[in-house]
Structures are given as structure tokens and as C-alpha cells.
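Let us work through a complete example step by step.
Step 1: write down the sequence.
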Amino acid sequence: MATNATWASLDPSRRQAFERAINVSGAGSVLVQNFTNKIIQQLSIREFGALGTMDRKPGSGSAAIINRRTASTMAASSVWVADTDSVTESTGSYAQTSFSYKTLATRGKVTRKMRARGRSYIDILAEEMMQKSEDFNEALESCIMIGDTGAVANQFDGLITLIGGVSGQVIANTSAAAGDAVTLAKLDEAIDAVKGAGNRSDLVIYGSFAGLRRLNAALSGNQRFIESTEISAGFRVRTYDGIPMVVSTGLPDDSTWDGSAITGITGELTNPTTSLVIVNKRHTYLEELTAMTMMPLARDDSQYEQFDIFWDGALVLANSKGAAMLSGISLV
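Step 2: predict the structure and record it as C-alpha cells.
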């Protein structure tokens, strides 16, 4: 309750407002000045593990062109010779492969009036640019993992598609279509299938939240190889045998597994499975023709302000043995 001195100090108009506020039901809410937090919350859970850890190299031309050599056969009976034996010729074979640059692009638009109305709150155009860049990165992260030119011709092949096309690089966690709990012996086998696996500092294990939880459970149960290391941008992550375990929300948790291969990337609901992807960053990288660019567009309409975001590049698996994956990990 106001004291007599306080009441007396109010001018007549303020005194009347005060009287109404304390005497009329519900009027009190009218006299409250609400404050809106200026941080806009993005309603998504995204982890760009591949984008954050893969090396990026400058590109040129129409594609990243890679020369590959298949090793020659060096049978002991033909290469170990006596003093008078003839030397047997044995050479490797060469082939060239290319990874075409593809374009990821999107456009944002904000009305002139909306920007003017929101000026006292934030710069709506700048905010939309920043938030849309996260949407853009999510699309790129997803393509790095599950891109398939057979399904969408204008995108590049992702890791699951590229690795799945190389004999011996998909390690079956189990032969059961329903999948099974992570088998560490099989994970070791998948790691050993990656070229240069002896140098653990070059390797990364990518997994979804659920996939890495399954791996963490297996590690905790066996009390082995649980440490942490610092990766790009100063983040600390757990490691398996010295290999960083990095989350990527681009990896699906509803893959269809037939016991030896992934036959469907998304959509499996009865027996959903996931995979752990192991890459050697020296042999698996992003080659960029144009780095991610945000470009405001010229105004040709008084009603709108627009901007484009675009990126030209390719995911390069330079050495076909440079990545492998452990598939058939059950999530049920």
C-alpha cells in the first residue's frame, strides 16, 4: 500500500491511473511493460561434424580429377631370383577418376515493411541471413553423408554411397538384417580397412548421436580406449584408441540393412540401423571451387530484400581405401 507521502506526490492523472490499476480487475496487466529477449532461438538440433573437421582444398576446372594406381602382384616365386634367373616383369595399373563439382544454393527474402517494423527489435535481414546459413550447412552436412547422384543428379555422392561402392570397405557389424549392438572387434576391423590407419591422428570416426551412444556404451562396458582429445575450433571429444569420435546429424538412424549392405538410406522403422564412418582426412576431403558465399541481391522490387547463399565443390574420396564404415548397428 502506498504511504500518504507517496500518494500525495503523484500528479492527478497518475493518481487516477494508479487508482484504476489497483481497483479494476485485470487492469494491472495493462501497466506492465513486457521485455522480449532479442536472441532468436533456432528450433533445431544440428551437429556439423564433417563440415567442422574435414580438410578443404581449392578446386579448379569442372571436377576434381584423381589418378589412382592398383598395386602389382609380387608373388614370392617370381620376385625372389637366383643369380642366373631372368627377372619377371610386373607392373601396376593406372586409372583416372573424377568428382564433379556440384552447386548448393538457396535464397532468402525479407519484406521491406517487415524489416522496417522490426528495426527497434533487431536487423531482421541480418538475422535471417545468419540463421539461413545454418540451414545451408545442414543441407551440405547431410549430402556429405548420404548424398546420392542416382537419387538427385545435381548433388554429389556422399560417404555412404562412395564407401558402399568399394569392395571390402563396408564392414558388417552383424549379418542379421535387424542389426546388433556395436562389436568392438568389428569396429577395429573397419578401422584397419582404412588406408593409413596406423597414424591415428589422421582418422576420424563419424556417428549420429544414437550411434556414438551405442559406441560409448560398448566402450564403458569394456573399460577400454576412453579418452578425450581436442579437435578443430577447440572442441574436446571422446576418442576410441586415439581416434576422435565426432557427431554428425547428417548420418541417418533409420537405414535399411540387409546383412551385408545398406539398401536404403532412410525410412526403415521396423529394424532401424545406423553406421559409424571412419575416414582418413588425408584421403577424404572437400574440394571447393567456390567457398560458401552469401550475396545480397540488387533491389528490383521495393517490397523485398533478397540474398543468395551458394557453394560449388565436391566431396573427394581420393583413395578408394581412404574410408570405411561399420554398418548394421541396431538402434532398437
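Step 3: interpret the result. The mean pLDDT is 87.
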